[in-house]
Every structure is written in C-alpha cells, then in structure tokens.
Design goal:
By secondary structure, the chain is α/β, with parallel strands linked by helices. It has 2 domains: 3-54 and 305-395, Aspartate Aminotransferase, domain 1 (Alpha-Beta Complex), CATH 3.90.1150.10; 60-302, 3-Layer(aba) Sandwich (Aspartate Aminotransferase, domain 2), CATH 3.40.640.10. It has helices at residues 3-13, 47-50, 59-71, 84-95, 110-125, 142-146, 151-154, 203-214, 265-268, 287-302, 309-319, 342-354, 379-395, and strands at residues 26-30, 33-36, 41-44, 103-107, 129-133, 164-167, 182-188, 217-221, 245-248, 259-263, 325-331, 334-339, 357-358, 368-371.
Length: 398
C-alpha cells in the first residue's frame, strides 16, 4: 500500500487522541531505534512512554513471547487455571519486594491496576474517602480519572466517582486532611504528568507516618518509575518507605500491555470472597504477556542495567546544559527538560522528529520535554541525542 494511502487510512479509520499525531509510519524497531517505512532510523528517547524498558525487540523478551505462543495463549479468565508464566512472575516480584508486599493481581493496564487498588483499599478499610494529589495522573478510566488532579482534563467527563479530596504534592501542611475517614492516599512516587516532580524533604515518609496514624492505606503509583527506571526496581525504594498497595504497569511488560497491583496477601484476599470475583478480568495474567514481564524482570535483576542508570542520568544532566534549559527534572532515566515557554518545548519535539530523534511532551506540564529512553540506551546514543537537542536550542529564534 502506498505510504500516503496508509496515512490516510490511519487518520480515517483509527480513532485519534490528538489533532496532530506524530504519524511516524513504523516498519520495525530494534534496540534504541525505530525504523520508518523508508528505512530511516529514529533514536528513541520516548521508549513507548516509559514502556519499552529493555528497548525494542529485546532478544530475551522475543524468545519468551515466541516460546509461550507456541505452547498456549489465552485459556481461561484470571485466577482459575495455574499458568506457569503468571505464577513465576508473581513469585519473583514478591522475592524482590519488601514485606509485606507478597501478593500480586495481574491486569491489562496501569489504569486498571489503579481501579483495583482503589477498590481494595475501600474493602480493607471499610471507608470510602480517597485522597489524591493536585497534578496527579493515574489513568483515564472513571475511577482513575476521579483521582486525577487536573480539572481541565476531567471537566468534559463529569460526573465522576465522588468521595475524593486533593492535597498538594510536597506540601506537609496538607497531610492533616488525612483522617480516620480516609480509606487511602494515592500518590505517584514521582509525579509524571505534572512535570516529573520528585518528593522533597522526606515527604513520602511523612505521608506514610500520617497514614499509619489514621489507619489509611498508602497506595503508590509506580506505573512510570517502576521496573528500574530510577535505578532501583521501584522508585519508592529511594525514599525508605513501603506502601500498602503498589500499582505498576508500563515498563513491567517490556512493550506488552500489562498492569498489576501488589499488596499483603491478608489484604488481597478481600477480593476473593463476599463477593467472590470481587475484582475480575478476562485477560489479566495472559500467559504471553506474563512471559514478557517475567523475562523483563529477570533481565533487570540478573544484570547491571539498573546499576548503570545513575551514570546515564549524570551523563544526560552534564550534556543538557544550555541557557534555554531552565531545569532538568526527574530521577534516573525518567527525566524532563524544562524550558521557559510551551512554544519552545513544542518546537524541540517537532524539530527533533525531523532530525530523527524521538521526544515527547508531558500531559499537564507543557513546558516540559520528556526524556525516557530505554534503560539499555548506550552512552554514545545519549551523546548523539543530546547533541541534536543542543543544536536545536542553539538555532532557536523566538
């Protein structure tokens, strides 16, 4: 099919999410590169929006998926049959998480994991109030959107689920809003859509303490920082706390669609009885997807990939120095270039695409440029991509 015809069909028949999609027509992808149908290689600083943890077509993941497809694919709804990839994945997660996080419920996406976590918190505590943060993003289904802290994106879809309150991330005074009526506090360990904002001044420890005082559960959303992106398997490990419920997705599948939430088994059993099937999903724990997740987790825990991230972050920060860059936010390989204007940040993204470098924005903070490459990116590739960004900035004339 001619290239212009494929683009026409893309715009005509596939539902779009924005007025101006990037519309890169993909032929194949390997390592840190995506190739278009003309054979042009694009250096990928997006990684499927933090999803392609080990880059594209990683041999270990490809083999795991291929082997599983040859054995069996979907056979039964979640939780009824013993399927080895899902069991092995849940066990390996438990072995790499602190107590009491030992029971994992596998779902299909991060937003579904958020929904399950919110249901579990209400069931465990018998309370209904949920407290989230201004600027928070936890997904786009109704429950997840109800704890989204950005009214501009919520207003068109109201009414949403009631019973939610909001606090400001990193604002200690707001923690008094957490009371004995609160079922759970849900926070991103590092705020994503708001601009890759990291917790400061032991903020998460203070949230943990207040939750303990009031009997509220702490839900940490690790959908973006999770699975090694910050240099540890999960971002919360940097801050010396443990959540009651851990939400994950994106990077855990190495490019396959997946989500999960993990809690203590004594809590998770609340979803199996009174009523039975308290949370249910047809394709959660899909054996092909679970095989990809297991291969990703094994690669992260058996190699030096996470150890190397601190040095890669330092290299990015040393190269991304320019008068038009006001700040580089984030942690590990979850970074965001901040500029003084939305116009400049949009220009960097658009111009980089022309120069075969893939960058993207953030949901709420439009002065930000996302840098979330595969964790396997090389130092030479980092230097190559940053040189493109600096060249664009040097040429900028407002």
């Amino acid at each position: 099919m001619p290239k212009d015809m494929m683009k026409k069909d893309f715009l005509s028949y596939q539902a779009q999410t924005s007025p101006r999609p990037m519309a890169l027509e993909v032929s194949r992808a390997e390592g840190s590169y995506i190739y278009d149908t003309d054979g042009r290689a694009y250096l990928d600083f997006i990684a499927g929006v933090s999803a392609n943890t080990l880059g594209h077509s990683h041999p270990r993941i490809v083999k795991a998926v291929s082997d599983q497809v040859e054995s069996y694919m979907h056979v039964m709804v979640y939780g009824e049959f013993i399927q080895h990839p899902a069991v092995k994945l849940a066990k390996l997660l438990a072995e790499n998480l602190p107590d009491p996080l030992d029971s994992t419920y596998l779902v299909n996406s991060g937003t579904e994991a958020t929904e399950g976590a919110l249901k579990l918190a209400r069931r465990v505590t018998g309370r209904s109030e949920i407290i989230a943060a201004h600027g928070a993003y936890h997904g786009n289904t109704q429950g997840s959107m109800s704890v989204m802290g950005y009214e501009e994106r919520k207003q068109a879809f109201r009414p949403l689920i009631p019973g939610n309150k909001f606090i400001s991330f990193n604002k200690e005074e707001d923690l008094q809003k957490i009371t004995d009526k609160t079922a759970a506090v849900i926070l991103e360990t590092i705020q994503g859509g708001a601009g890759f904002i990291v917790p400061e001044d032991n903020y998460l420890q203070k949230v943990r303490k207040r939750c303990d005082e009031t009997g509220a559960l702490l839900i940490l959303d690790e959908i973006q920082p999770g699975f090694g992106r910050t240099g540890k398997l999960f971002g919360f490990e940097h801050y010396h706390i443990v959540p009651d419920i851990l939400v994950m997705g994106k990077g855990m599948g190495g490019g396959m669609p997946v989500g999960a939430f993990t809690a203590a088994r004594k809590h998770m059993v609340q979803l199996m009885d009174k009523p039975a099937l308290g949370h249910i999903t047809t394709f959660g724990g899909n054996p092909v997807v679970a095989s990809a997740c297991l291969a990703t987790l094994q690669e992260l825990t058996e190699t030096s990939i996470m150890v190397d991230i601190q040095a890669k972050e330092a290299l990015f920060r040393s190269l991304l120095v320019h008068p038009l860059i006001t700040e580089v936010r984030g942690k590990g390989l979850m970074l965001a270039i901040m500029t003084a204007s939305e116009k400049l940040s949009a220009h960097i993204i658009q111009e980089s695409l022309k120069r075969a470098l893939l960058l993207f924005g953030l949901l709420f903070e439009r002065k930000a440029v996302r840098i979330t490459p595969p964790l396997t990116i090389s130092e030479d590739e980092i230097r190559q991509g940053c040189a493109v960004i600096i060249d664009i900035l040097n040429e900028w004339h407002d």
